[in-house]
Amino acid sequence: MRIPLVREWGSWVVLVLSMSAAVVAYSNAHGFNGLDSSVVMAMMGFALLVNTKNPLSAVLRSHKDIGSIVWFAVFFASGFVLILLSLGAGIGRFFIFAPLIVIYFLLLWSGREHHIVSELIGFAILTLAAPVLYYVMSGEIAYRLNLAVLLFFAAGVLKVRVRLRRTIQYRRTVVLYCAGAAAAFYLMGISIFLLLPLTENIFAVISMHNEKLRTTGYIELSKGLVFLILIKFFWV
Question: Of the chain's two ends, which shows fewer C-beta atoms within 10 Å, N or C?
Answer without folding.
Answer: N
